[in-house]
Amino acid sequence: MDIERVSTGVPELDKLLRGGIPKNFFVAVTGEPGTGKTILLLHFIAKGIEIGDKCIYITTEESRESIIRQASQFKWDFQDAINKGNLVIIDALMRPIEDEYSLNRLDIEELVNKVIEIKKRFGYGHCRLAIDSLSAFWLDKPAMARKYSYFIKKVLNRWNMTIVATSQYAITTSDAFGFGVEHIADGIIRFRRAIRNGVLKRYLIIEKMRQTPHDLHLWEIEIVDGVGLKIVRPAIERAEDYALPTHVKRRIIRAREEKDSEIP
Ligand SMILES: Nc1ncnc2c1ncn2[C@@H]1O[C@H](COP(=O)(O)OP(=O)(O)OP(=O)(O)O)[C@@H](O)[C@H]1O
Ligand SMILES: [Mg+2]
Asked: Ligand 1 within 6 A of 135 CB?
């Protein structure tokens, strides 16, 4: 049986995904600051607008205006899509009070209810949901990452939507990892960065995509003005390209040592 796939908006990435993200999946996009996570989400939404999917973008990291401006640098007119009722941007950073879709709190239940309310208004048909970032909803309680991700996936699964959500590293107390979302997610696209010969390089790797014989290489990417994210070439494999950042590794080791020392 053929799996229906949803384009990411980056043609080369769709090829690596053997056609795109399986419809109604919940995909996590992770990685360090400035590596291209938000821009990938913008591609995903711009593609949705182009093909007539209804779209919801939740921004906790930047204001709505900032998102619209960033999109316009890649020639996507998000304001026009908003005016036509095809896109709703929920601004959870500035929380404009005059806004009918504003979130009062960074609360996961409120988020899910709001999304369902918008989806109902959109009516039948497939919808794209971008959440940037999901980690903001458990900033002060990183141990809840997994539970919250599970809740989102379970509840929204019934609403015919494909979800792409960014998530940052989070270290929980003695459990060492606070990824949480990554086990729940149907797919993981990870961004990396490194300095090579004094130049910032960015990379992308598909770490997981259920039901997909996806590509397994680390790819060098570029963010090009007026164009967006481009996949350039396979990276020469070097451990530091895909390993966790040193400070994260150190904290994990320290947390493990602490845990071990508690064992009598
Ligand atoms: N118009 C543009 N042309 C070229 N490069 C751009 C343009 N706009 C942004 N960039 C590059 O993209 C980077 C930001 O990427 P993006 O916002 O996707 O990062 P991110 O992974 O979401 O980071 P964070 O975790 O901080 O939100 C900028 O630092 C810049 O290098
Ligand atoms: Mg971002």
From this structure: no
